[in-house]
Specification:
Elements lengths: L2 E6 L17 E2 L2 E2 H11 L4 E6 L4 H7 L5 E4 L4 H9 L8 E6 L7 H12 L4 E7 L4 E4 L5 E5 L5 E3 L3 E4 H10 L9 H7 L5 E4 L10 H12 L1
Parallel strand pairs: 1-4, 1-6, 4-5, 7-12
Antiparallel strand pairs: 2-3, 6-11, 7-10, 7-11, 8-9
The structure holds cytidine-5'-monophosphate.
Length: 220
Amino acid sequence: MHAVGIVAAAGSGLRLGADRPKALVPLADRPLVCWAVDTLRDGGVADVVVAVPGDELCAFATVLPLDVRLVVGGSTRTASVRAALAAVGTGADAVLVHDAARPLTPPDLVVRVLEALSAGARAVVPVLPVVDTTVVVDDDGGVADTVDRSVLRRVQTPQGFARDALVDAYAWLPPDAELTDDAAVVRAAGVPVATVAGDERGAKVTVPHDLALAELQVSR
Ligand code: C5P
């Protein structure tokens, strides 16, 4: 199976309070995007396309290996992945989509996703259980309902797809559609999505506290 990796790295550093795109913020002196590319490569996905902000192409080219392909992302994550997918050649039979914002995802997780695709899954996502009590609130912030958490899962990346399933789903999706992950795109197109075990180390860096935790993790 020939798999190509996509890293969505075109987001801003706003919620992190950073003065640059989040993917360029350093963790142990290396930009987050470099960690994410390493995860894919160490897990066996050598061919990687990274979607970056249009005005930061040079900055990304400076920090990433020469054989990583860069494309200009869009104003939403969905648009960025769409742009990167257009750069994935027809020679690939699988695509793994990963977030630059998940720097410490272990390569084992990439292997699990690849194995599920090899075993015949058309789409697969890593998931973790929900451990907190989870509620629905009304417009005033009052608790309206408690959800049965035993059927809920938190979804991580990398998410794996048969290339044709992902390409067809994006072709079918309206151009301005905005979904929070790629499994939602293929599910909307009617493709069943399988799950594999996720990993707490693959947590997303969103706010400064997440980055502080990641720094602690790499210093241990
Ligand atoms: O903002 P959030 O952390 O949820 O974004 C998830 C990933 O999607 C990040 O790695 C971010 O760089 C990427 N992204 C993107 N293009 C956008 C917005 C987010 O590639 N326009």
